UniProtKB/TrEMBL annotation:
The chain crosses the membrane at residues 27-47, 67-88, 100-117, 123-145. It comes from Acidithiobacillus thiooxidans (Thiobacillus thiooxidans). It holds the Pfam family PsiE. One of its GO terms (cellular component) is plasma membrane. It is found in: Cell membrane. It comes from the Bacteria. Coiled coil: none annotated. This is Diguanylate cyclase. InterPro entries: P_starv_induced_PsiE-like.
Length: 155
C-alpha cells in the first residue's frame, strides 16, 4: 500500500480540531507504523536470504522443519503487514485506534501460524488442545462481532 501524501495533508488540516490525546494517538500511531515498516523490511530481507541459501545448496527435498520455518516466516510477514495496515487505517480515519474485529482476526492468524510451526514430536497434547480452544473461542468472538456489525449497518 503506497503512502498517499494527501493523508498527511488531511492530518495537518484536522490537527487543530484534535484533542491533546488524539494528537498523542496520531503521533504514536505514525511512529509505530514506521517502526513496523522497518521490521517488515528487515524480516523480508531475512526471509529472502533464507530462501536464497536454500536455492544455493539446491535442496530438492525440503524437510518438514525447513518448510515450517519458511511458511512461518511468510505468515509472520503477513501478520505484520495486516497489523501495520490496521494502524495506518486508524491514522487515516481518525477513529478508534484499532478495531476489535481486526485485532481478533490478527490473533486468529497468529494461532494459525502456531499450528503451522508445531513440532508434533515434542509437543504435549494439552498444548494442542489449548491452541484449538483458543482458535474456536476467537472464531466465535469474530462471528459475534461480525453479526453485530451487520446488524448495525442494517439499522
Amino acid at each position: 500500500m503506497p503512502i498517499n501524501p494527501k493523508i498527511f495533508h488531511k492530518l495537518r488540516a484536522n490537527w487543530s480540531v484534535l484533542t491533546v490525546y488524539e494528537r498523542f494517538e496520531q503521533i504514536f500511531s505514525i511512529a509505530i507504523s514506521f517502526v513496523i515498516m522497518v521490521v517488515i523490511v528487515l524480516a523480508f530481507g531475512s526471509f529472502l536470504s533464507h530462501v536464497v541459501n536454500l536455492l544455493e545448496i539446491k535442496i530438492i527435498d525440503i524437510n518438514n522443519r525447513t518448510f515450517s520455518t519458511i511458511f512461518g516466516s511468510i505468515m509472520s510477514l503477513l501478520i505484520a503487514l495486516e497489523f501495520n495496515h490496521t494502524i495506518f487505517h486508524s491514522i487515516k480515519h481518525r477513529g478508534q485506534i484499532v478495531r476489535v474485529k481486526t485485532v481478533v482476526l490478527i490473533a486468529i492468524l497468529v494461532i494459525a501460524r502456531e499450528f503451522v510451526l508445531l513440532d508434533t514430536g515434542n509437543i504435549h497434547s494439552a498444548t494442542v488442545l489449548a491452541y484449538a480452544i483458543s482458535a474456536v473461542c476467537l472464531g466465535v468472538v469474530y462471528y459475534i462481532l461480525d453479526v453485530r456489525e451487520r446488524i448495525g449497518q442494517d439499522e
